Amino acid sequence: MSSEQEPISIETREVTKTYGERAAVNHVSLQVKKGEFVSLLGPSGCGKTTLLRMLGGLEQPDQGSILLGGRDVTGIPAYGRNSNMIFQQLALFPHMDVFNNIAYGLKVKKLPKADIRRQVHEMLELVQLGDYGRRAVSQLSGGQAQRVAIARALINRPEVLLLDEPLSALDMQLRLDMQRELKRIQREFGGTFIFVTHDQNEAMNMSDRIGVMRAGKLLQYATPDEIYEKPTDSFVAKFIGDTNLLATRVLGQDTNGIRVECFGYSLLVKTGEDTPVAIVGARHSLSIRNEYIRLGEDAIPCLNKLDGRVIEAVYGGANIRYTIQIAEGFLVQASALHQRGASRFSPGEPIRIGFDPEDALLLSEPMLQDPAQEEGI
Ligand SMILES: Nc1ncnc2c1ncn2[C@@H]1O[C@H](COP(=O)(O)OP(=O)(O)OP(=O)(O)O)[C@@H](O)[C@H]1O
């Protein structure tokens, strides 16, 4: 089946929401397929929560439309939609036990008691809290409370479950456990989940697709692999993973690739389907992931080689992170696997670095400034 034919769970078409003068969400179009786990990722204030709230009917767009299960639900409030939402504050009913918290949605629908009991038990099994039905919610750990909130949100079998940073209040270890747990639940339940986070690792670990947002715009919507390997612009490249963005000028193009100039070096870059058309003299950012930079003897076979000096070497367990100065104002960050017996380089040491054309990506827009500094990330 082609991706065009796969059923769409939820879709936005050119959705815009403005507060005062400012578009919190600006002409965003995206499609989420049934059974997908999608993350909306971006720095604080980029509009992720506003978009999620519009998907759930808690806010209404000023422009554009939203389709849920193929039906236009624009303008329909949350209670009229077959979606459900989990927030960072879980808001479990404190006076009810776990069973009754989960059963609530079915009781409102006035389902027969036996059906409610059976479905609540199925949900308790799904979230691995089989014996906790009679437990007061005040006696749950943070992770258990999360599971109850998930079970309560799923019991009505929503077309889509919307999650607004539900793990951000948990400590690191529990957060990692809950990431795995949430993925397992989503797989077993077979539902569509849309998850808001500003944590790139969380988004990379969990998602089938990630929507990267900035200042209300959806910059890129693709699989974690694609976003990492083929970011569409310097903001995405910098926000996901660690990368060097070099300011370059196109010298020319031949069958081997595009040749660019950077601080007096002539570098060869591979052309790909997304590579911008090479116009001689045009300025483009070149993105090279820190881990794709080879150091010392490893740089010898590389087609692009530069000479510099180690400024800093930071030991990080599995990796060593080097800052290398190639020229005044030209610093490169490299991350080398820390293996027993492998060469290590010390601050002050001259060093040769290299990279192959296919390990660098020429981005379509010129580098004006460091996007990470601009956003304060
Ligand atoms: N009810 C509102 N009234 C006025 N402005 C709002 C309102 N809700 C959000 N905004 C503004 O819209 C922009 C996007 O906010 P939103 O909460 O969607 O961002 P976010 O990416 O989820 O950020 P965070 O990660 O900090 O929650 C921000 O500039 C915010 O101040």
From TrEMBL:
Alphabetized InterPro entries for the sequence: AAA+_ATPase (IPR003593), ABC_SmlMolc_Importer (IPR050093), ABC_transporter-like_ATP-bd (IPR003439), ABC_transporter-like_CS (IPR017871), Mo/tungstate-bd_C_term_dom (IPR008995), P-loop_NTPase (IPR027417), PotA-like (IPR005893), Transp-assoc_OB_typ2 (IPR013611)
Pfam families: ABC_tran (PF00005), TOBE_2 (PF08402)
Domain ABC transporter: 10-240
EC number, as in UniProt: 7.6.2.11
Keywords from the UniProt entry: ATP-binding, Cell membrane, Membrane, Nucleotide-binding, Translocase, Transport
Keyword presence, Zinc: no
Molecular function GO terms recorded: ATP binding
Chain's role: Part of the ABC transporter complex PotABCD involved in spermidine/putrescine import. Responsible for energy coupling to the transport system.
Complex and partners: The complex is composed of two ATP-binding proteins (PotA), two transmembrane proteins (PotB and PotC) and a solute-binding protein (PotD).
Family assignment from sequence similarity: Belongs to the ABC transporter superfamily. Spermidine/putrescine importer (TC 3.A.1.11.1) family.
Protein known as: Spermidine/putrescine import ATP-binding protein PotA
